[in-house]
Structures are given as structure tokens and as C-alpha cells.
Amino acid sequence: MLKDVFDNTKYMRHDSAQQGTRFHFSAGYFMVGLLKKRYSVRFADGAKDIEAAQRLRFKTFRGGGDGLDADRFDEICEHVLVEEVKTGNLVCTFRMLPLESGKEIDKSYSAQFYELSRLHDIEGMIVEMGRFCIDPAYKDPDILRIAWGAMTTYVDDNDVELLFGCSSFHGTVEEEYEDAFALLKERHLAPKRWLPRVKAPRVFRFASKLKLKKPNLKLAQRRMPPLLRTYLVMGGWVSDHAVVDNDLNTLHVFTGLQIKGIPESRKRLLRATAG
């Protein structure tokens, strides 16, 4: 695991016995310039930090209370923490799973739910971003910006070709999000060469079921999750179906973002956030 990101050594090593691969990251790159008045960003450093991330995930994804949202992927991922400087409170967390190429995508969390063989031909490094959540008590939009700024630095420093993951809608009632799904169908479906196939036992095939529906744009934007909305404005794309995840009480779509496809204006804004 990555240790202290403020370490002065030039490189850090990440070893994963499960993946059998090794990655090198520039030390200190992730946090420099990311102290933005109220918030700082860092990698988790040990079990205590990971447990804090799991507690926030439980609070966000599983309806509050005191518990841990944990799975087997936590052991092979890097966990990112966004903290309020004044209080030290954890306000946002997500995890990243770096993979050497598309051939390794079946090791990802997303591959449990989507058949992703069409992405095997991607030759460059790909990174799964998952379990993204913000403490519901914090409404500051800067938290999302800081998190994306951190991710942008990571992507730039490691020549990442594709960022991907599952983007979730709260609840499993499809009708509540019809306009959002209709907008995804109309404007944001994955290129056919990368379109994920159905794998999960229960899915909502919105691209076919809402084929004739014209979205109400205001309602669609209102119902679109903030993280997914950010992916989309940067040129991201989604699967043609949503997975019904009863465990987390969500509907989620596979989401991909080809880094070279991000508009230059968006890249400049994110890099400015990263300092």
C-alpha cells in the first residue's frame, strides 16, 4: 500500500499479491497544492484510516448508523480521504484500483456486475474509482471539486488511459429516474466497441425500454447523481442498462471516461483545482 504521500523519496511501490502486478507512483504528488482553505486530501495510512472510510461508506450507502461497509476489494485498493482541516472530520472518500491494461479489468469490482470483455483491448493503464461518497452533513460543492482535482493529478502523473466505475442512483425504483435514464440513452451511451454486456441477474434495460421517451432536461439533471453528472460533462459514457443492487439499495450504471477525450477546457479547470 502507499504509505505517507508526503514522503520525500522519489517513488513508492504498490504490490498486490492478488493482482500479481506492481505500480510506481511519484511520492507527494497527490497532495501538493490540494490544501484548499477548508479541506485536505491524502491516501489512507493504515487500518484505522481504512476503517474511517468504511464507516463513512456505511453511513452514506447503508442508511446511517454505526457500522462498516467493507468487502474483499478494500485490500487491493488505494483509499483516498478528503478531510476538513479545522475539525479533522472525514467528509469524502473513494477508492482506486489501478490495473495495467484492459486485460485486467475482470479483476475489478465492476466486473462482478457487467460483462466487460469489449474493454480488454485497451492497452494503457486503467483505474477503477469506486465507493465514492460525501458525508451527507456536508453540502459544500468544493468537496467534489477537490476530490476530482486529486484524481486529475493522479491520472496525469500515471498516464491513465481510462477511468471507470459504477455510478449509483439511490434506491431501486426505476420510475423515479426515467428522465435521467432517458437522457443517458439519448446522449451518453458507450461507444458500441466498448459497450458492456449484461451480466447481473436483475437489470433495467433503459436504452431499449425508454427508446421512445424524450427526457425532460430539467428533471433529468435534477435526478442525475452529482458524481455521474461530473463524469458526463467531461465526456464520460455509460452502459445501456442499470444494475439493480439490492445490497446497497441502488441502481447503478457502468461509467467510463477516456482521458484523452476530456475537453481541454475541463482539464484546465481540474488542474487548477489540483493546484
On the 0 to 100 scale, the average pLDDT is: 86
Indicate the CATH class. Answer: Alpha Beta
- Rough outline: globular
- Give the radius of gyration: 18 Å
CATH topology: Aminopeptidase
By CATH, the architecture is named 3-Layer(aba) Sandwich
What characterizes the major β-sheet? Answer: 9 strands, mixed
Count of individual helical segments: 7
As a percent range, the share of helical residues equals: 25-40%
Oligomerization: single chain
User: Strand-residue fraction?
Assistant: 25-35%
Unreliable stretches (pLDDT < 50, length at least 5) are 1-35
Annotated CATH homologous superfamily = Gcn5-related N-acetyltransferase (GNAT)
**C-alpha end-to-end distance:** 25 Å
Question: What structural class should be given to the helix and strand makeup?
Answer: alpha+beta
**Count of DSSP E strands?**
13
Instruction: State the domain count.
Output: 1
Order of helices and strands: EEEHEEEEHEHEEHHHEEEH
